[in-house]
Amino acid sequence: MRRVRLYCAAGSWVHRSHPSTKLVAFAAIVALLTVFPWRLNLILFALLAALLASTRVPFRHYWLLIALSLPFMAIAPLLNGIWPPDPAVDRVVATIPLVEVPLYGEGILRGVSRDLLFGGSLIVTIVLLTTTELPDLADAPTYLGAPHVVGFTFAATLRYIPEVANFLLTLYDVQESRGVDFYTRNPVTNFARRTTIFIPLLVLQLSRASRMSNAMESRGFRIRQAPTLYALRPMGRAERAAVYAVAALAIVLVVLRAGTLLVPGDYPLGFGTF
What we know:
Layout: H1 13-16, H2 19-35, H3 38-54, H4 63-82, E1 92-96, E2 101-104, H5 105-131, H6 134-143, H7 148-177, H8 187-195, H9 198-218, H10 237-262
Antiparallel strand pairs: 1-2
Helix pairs in contact: 2-5, 2-10, 3-5, 4-5, 6-7
């Protein structure tokens, strides 16, 4: 039976880092990917790819996420190239064969920028989820001072996603055992057969969510009352200083980026453009 799992045990330095440190770094990196121009995002993307490799998590553990993302990342530059920000002033750099549709350079660059944002966010998400156990992720926001419901909701969502995926794969296995072929030569037929499973999946998961809510309430869980949390190990001084430094650097860079957008000028590395 096929299974979907998030965490992958390994002995890398990322695995040994404090969960709260990884959570702060995750938020800072996503913020920088959002505000940085594409040239800096390209460098940051390469660094994130090296970070993912340093975790020593096997590629087979997350290859499906990469495979599902690549088609959307390939389409983004094309669509932005066809519909650029300002066709009146943007440069035509090529045309699509047969249909003779122009492709604008500025639009392609905007699509590449969107790909770097999405791809970098995907990589840092994979790093966070594959190197941190779910109970630690639940306690990490509370360790940083957030209400316990934030950590609980975060962890419950992450736990629920693979459960739904596992249930979907189980339904596929059941249907295949009954003779349903999901790999015919007709992609439309394959798509129609797969999507018909989504309706019973939705109904069953809604019923399951209701049962889970009743079970939690029967065990005394209350949103307004903080439960006893599993204790995380104390964060060392060096790691705490690194968290403060990363958060401060991200805030400063975001503020500087906002200033370049409010005050037009000739800034390096494309900081004066959106």
